[in-house]
Amino acid sequence: MREPTELEKKQLARVLELTAIARQRYLDAGGDPRRCPSGRKGDDYMTDEERQESLELTRAIFAVRIIGDEVHCQGRVWKIPAVSAKQKSEIVS
How many structural domains comprise the chain? Predict the structure, then answer.
């Protein structure tokens, strides 16, 4: 495994900072210190801007890219399975 670059270290520090801010908001709102919020929008205690920044930084740090019907991550590639019409109708219903 390679050592992270200086930029990656700064990006990770920012993601950790955003997470700590959100955690403090959760605790200030009366959250259980032994539990963490789900992380879903509305239960992550982040503003929309913070959530977007965190998402962009995480994608940059871990280099996850979706190109067409493939996922590219750390030199590996996965094919995204096609959803059949039958599966789509089951998902909708």
Answer: 1
